[in-house]
Amino acid sequence: MKNPVFTGAGVAIVTPFTATGEVNYEEFGRIVDHQIAHGTDAIIVCGTTGEASAMHDKEHREAVAWCCEYVNHRVPVIAGVGSNDTAYAVELTRFAQECGADGGLSVTPYYNKTTQRGLLAHYTKIADCCDLPIILYNVPSRTGVCFTADTLYQLAQHPNINGLKAASGDFSLLAAAMAKCGDDLNVWSGNDDQIVPLMALGGKGVISVLSNVAPQETHDLTQLCFENRYPEAAQMQFKYHDLIDALFCEVNPIPVKKAMEILGWNVGALRLPLVEASEEHAARIKKELEKAGCKI
Fold it and tell me: Does 240 qualify as catalytic in the annotation?
């Protein structure tokens, strides 16, 4: 049995930028403190929501190192360490361990993609490079490649592969993988609208976009599941359904950064090629935030 890097609600945290485009560490600190004070169980830094794909290497490493130091073990920190270049993913993974991260989130290779045999080789190389627990990230809508249950089973035998962020939406695949892997693979939902059903299958929580604007509520939802209070958890899932839907009305993290701006956070502009949410979508996001009672 592998102990999960964290249980509950981990926030896939946004990266705030200054007016001149640098990482705004002062605001980043405020956001991190707010998250921890309101129940967030882990910080996932430099992931998709953190716009890591638009950060250069030095900036990415600085953000990971800063986050590990600033959080200072108050909650686990999971660093985005994925790449479609295996050698670079290895470098980032080693760096994250040196910084004191508790885990690394490693997305499947994108653009060049690979075969299932390639996925085995890619992740084995990463997991062999150091002792940092690795969370595999399956998001075929972004990468164009998807694990099979057999591949997940083989990877789960590696002691440094801790689990899976599941964002395929394919519950048949998840059920098959979880049945094969058992306690050798922890699973977190990568979709906020599927927290309750995935946890009912034995998931360990969620890596969440919703947590950026509703940290306490997302944490509480996972706790209801851990307490086997699934009817109440289902009602919470339904309550936040429209807000979750609004947070994905455009490409993530466009809507969630707009939502945080509406709530008063100084998150700054998105980095191209991402652009501001449309006026229509901004109005929808504001409406759903108000309906859900979200505030700083």
Answer: no
Which of 137, 153, 204, 240 is labelled catalytic? 137
Tens digit of each residue's pLDDT, the chain (296 residues): 799 999 999 999 999 999 999 999 999 999 999 999 999 999 999 999 999 999 999 999 999 999 999 999 999 999 999 999 999 999 999 999 999 999 999 999 999 999 999 999 999 999 999 999 999 999 999 999 999 999 999 999 999 999 999 999 999 999 999 999 999 999 999 999 999 999 999 999 999 999 999 999 999 999 999 999 999 999 999 999 999 999 999 999 999 999 999 999 999 999 999 999 999 999 999 999 999 999 87
Answer for the pair 258, 285: CB distance below 8 angstroms, yes or no: yes
Active-site residue (options: 123, 165, 240, 258): 165
25 labelled catalytic: no
Please give the domain boundaries of the chain with CATH numbers for all domains.
8-227 (3.20.20.70)
Structure tokens at 270: 């998105």
Supply angle C-alpha 265, 267, 269, rounded to 5: 140
* Residue 51 backbone dihedrals phi, psi, to 5 degrees: 60, 35
Radius of gyration of the chain, Cα coordinates, nearest whole angstrom: 18
Q: How far apart are CA 262 and CA 214, in angstroms?
A: 13
- The rounded distance, in Å, linking the Cα atoms of 150 and 135 is 17
- Structure tokens of 190? 């990568």
Task: Quote the pTM value.
Answer: 0.97
